[in-house]
Design goal:
heterodimer, A: mainly beta, 7-stranded mixed β-sheet, 4-stranded antiparallel β-sheet, about 0% helix, globular, B: mainly beta, 6-stranded mixed β-sheet, 5-stranded antiparallel β-sheet
Chain lengths: ~120, ~110
Amino acid sequence: ETGVTQTPRHLVMGMTNKKSLKCEQHLGHNAMYWYKQSAKKPLELMFVYNFKEQTENNSVPSRFSPECPNSSHLFLHLHTLQPEDSALYLCASSQDRRGANNEQFFGPGTRLTVL
Amino acid sequence: TQLLEQSPQFLSIQEGENLTVYCNSSSVFSSLQWYRQEPGEGPVLLVTVVTGGEVKKLKRLTFQFGDARKDSSLHITAAQPGDTGLYLCAGGNALVGNQFYFGTGTSLTVIP
């Protein structure tokens, strides 16, 4: 495996379900990100981890819970979601969150539908 | 939040035509990036520009950063069907820990 991988690629869940999204990067990077991409809206940064420490939480509702057990893996735990949370969830990584220019490498995303 | 507006939002052109897409903001950025996102995939970085007035070329793609570092343009010459995708600009601000703010995107379709 190379680059950034995400599983599952598609997920349909009810509002009472609990599920988790997984991201893995094989690039030796130290920063990982979760983004939400909705139709007709800019990419929204949700969480940032740098060297396994959460450095940013952009006012994300508590029904989204990130976990970063090591620099290569990032999870997004989901519970009691709302239909408006349906979107493409993208994971990205970069060498270091504080680095100038900070090129980010994105995974293919998980298409989430909340019924 | 530093808003970046992209125009046009949608663009459909014939193969071989030229096009320009724009990325505008009222905020000054330390650097600006352009990404292309193909259906079913994540965005892929095309270029980073860091100096006001800077022009970078990538084959048939020409990127320009505005003199005041508030705007940018992407010009494609002789568009090909392989250029089809969502083009995203992202402005970086070193004063906010190099956080990048993404634009609204331009969806380009090149018809063979």
